[in-house]
Fold these 3 entries.
Entry 1:
Amino acid sequence: MHIGKLGPHGTFLFGENMEIKVNGVTLYYEKKGFGKPLIMLHGNGESHEIFDVLSEALKKDFEVYLIDSRCHGKSEKHVEISYELMAEDMRSFIKALSIEKPMLFGFSYGGITGLLLAISDKNILGGLIIAGANYTKDGFTMEALMEMESFYQKTQDPLYKMMLHEPNITHDALDSIQTKTYIFVGSDDMIKLSHTKSLHAHIKDSKLHILKGHNHYDYVVHNDVLKTYIVKYLKK
């Protein structure tokens, strides 16, 4: 049972917290701020809450949509999951709410979702920011791969199985991206720097910023380090 009033496009309102059925799955999201629309997508095993600090900093400049991906946070659990399905979730979400040319910030596998969306629909996004994302399974450092494999063997978690076998985005697909793209990676990230540089090389006119001294998480999770970069880039 939904506690709250019925909102637009089949959403259910919980103050500024909402649920919407798209692509056959119920997604939870929150909306805050005013300005150009900005969608924020978290990584594996996380929720929109990792952006608590960053979204507060950004809401002064953007209308921020914080979404829990399928099988995460407060969104519907125990449903089929793949990067392609999550990209279609976002396309359907944008269409259902009639969001005009939103910018998308994707962290880790949220970034993979953003890449696939930009590949499949060339005109849907107004800008794309990728942080710590790989475009093939070979993008992880050996240490990260070993840790994920060990965790999967112990838990059989389907999210980790997905990470070990996906994504499989080709260079040709990356070459086809027309959305302006800004790429971040930590110098001590679990994503190899060589892999991120290859991502940058294959997305025309993309920008790359390597955050020295940062790992995979610390510049995004409960942090507003990226605020200045995001505002400057997306307001161009």
Entry 2:
Amino acid sequence: GSRIARCMKEYFIYKKNYKGTISSTLLAKSLYQKLWDDSPYLLKQLPGIGMVTAKALHSMGVKSFEALAEADPRRIEIVTGR
């Protein structure tokens, strides 16, 4: 899947189709990370955070990297159990 998306990106670059280039780049990135770019569990990309922890953080309102940086560490410990 990701090899095909990278091939599509190269093709669109060759054809100077920039919308196609952007779309295929985002597709390749999503396939590589096994996570869509608009997923509510973006924090799953961080090392040590699996789906259970990502869902727990999402339930407490932490849905972005910025929100995680601003969140109270004690509350994160309570919600995630770590």
Entry 3:
Amino acid sequence: MCIAYYKDVTIVILDTEGLLSLEESGSIFDNQMITMAVLSSHIVLINHKGELSSNLEGLIGMSLYAKLQLQNSPLKPKLLFVLRDQMDRNKKIFCEQLSQFKDNLQTSSRFLKVSIDDELEIKHENIVLLPSAFSEDINSD
């Protein structure tokens, strides 16, 4: 955990290293960490390898459910997706994935009678694609 100050704003950075790891797949820890981040943040930076996964979708759905149970949660966090190790950084592909991701969240949370857009900011411009360390040769020699 790191605490930084900028003007009159306190910034708390919590690195949840290992969420969605293969060893701990589907763990209670993952649910608790993502829920804490969503409930207490203005911005949730999700640094994820590869594509948007159904496991990630499930975690965010679970945190949305917890957020609604509190009823008076004043924050509407912006979800910023940093997708690393991308060979193809055609943003159109990932925008389509994000649209499907958001539609799936809306469908799975329909019983909550709430719009995802009222509770979370999930937008195409909140996707950042990073290349794999070995995807490009920067030396043309």
